[in-house]
TrEMBL record:
Region of interest: Disordered: 284-305
Name of the protein: RWD domain-containing protein
Amino acid sequence: MASLIAASSFAARERDALTKSIFISEVEASTLTFIRVKIFHSRYRKIRSNLTFPEDYPKEQLVVEITSQGDKGRLGIPVGLKKKLEVEAMEACKKVLEGGRKEVKPDDELTPENSQVLAACFYLKSFLDSNRFVSCWKELKQTASLVTAGRNTIRMSDSTGIILVNFISLPYTYSAQLSIDEGYPSTLLNEVDPLPIKIKVKSTNFPHVIETMITKQAIELVRRCCQGRDPVQALQMSNPIRAPRGFVMPAGEDRSARITRDTIKDLERDRETLLKMKKLKDVDQAKQAHNHKAALNSTKERKDARRELNKLAHKEIERDDELEKKMSQAEIDRAKLETGWQDDGDPVPSLLPTVNFLIDSIVKFQQGTCPVCNEMVLPKNPEDLKRLFEKSPEGAKKTAEEKKARKEMKKKRPVRCYCNCWYHAGCLEAYMTEPPFGGTCQGTCSGGPVHHPDYPEDKRILERTWNSKQARLREMEDAMLFL
Ligand SMILES: [Zn+2]
Ligand SMILES: [Zn+2]
């Protein structure tokens, strides 16, 4: 009993020292036998720990347990890190125990050298402060195993939060530096456009136009995740190609479908009303067969028809106003979906989705075949790919042969469609402008319609263009026959 009182009085001194220590965030609870403390670096880098005093404390070792589950259990401390922190914090306590054999006198100041509580908390705090990967520990491990599954390499520094990834899909390479922000998955930066991960391309042998397309989408993906979008939606929204009309977001509320159904119903009602109105007009205006000046129907019948017509017209105006209001709301809803507008939202971790996207964009792109001709989309030599995108010098006169060669080169350029499949420009041109005018995608996507902003979404326009081209050709053929 005496030892418990001694222990509790010493523990009380330690708790006071802990409360006074400005760098430790908060002593949340304390009893004779334990202290619960919250150690804080930023919103997503924090630890909750239970420190339990053994009966013979401070002669025995303090028991440190990490309990933090994080926000909504999503960004808690993963098991691997929890164990590491517990073992190392208890190591710090052991050092105090081994080094501080001499008695701590009542007037002695408590420090991490003579107090196990302070030693454990100082260790945890300095770990939190110096390790940028605390809030993406598990994600980083998954990322590393994803990256190293192929020939790719990854290097990281926990003190600076820098991750160097090198994606190799020979002969193509893409190296980038990903800097994890202090506030990841959010950001503590006070900039115009702060991001939880900064992406900087270090080197690549992709042409500038392709490299920027990939990198910009990765940056956009990070931004959307930070806004609270789930990675599937974030990826869809980061697509530089605008979604085709009627496209439904893969998750979340299916607003466009609801609007479409309503609109169709309205259109059907419109037709019914028009038919009804036409019949009423007929009643009012019909003339007798043998006398075109005399009305067919009685005055009363015509009057009733006119009254009914008026009523219907009024109703129509009201309904049109309502529909207009609804449609403008629909437009707002659509704009919100397209711009990723969000009322509020917790940031979603973006490291793994971003690296996953980069691997998909680089490795799968390199290995991919064109869905139309089934040949490799990329040339075997990166220099040949660069040449496809080279601009011809301004003012240079080209011979007919050079022009033809250039046209052929342009046809071989890789072009990405909305579904993320890559085509040869010439193959896509043929697929979109000739019957059956861009059917479903035969690439690695789930087979949605082929959509690219260079071609109209409306198949009828493509069809009309093709028809008039054919007509022109026929006319030319006919003209040739007369010559
Ligand atoms: Zn092709
Ligand atoms: Zn596709």
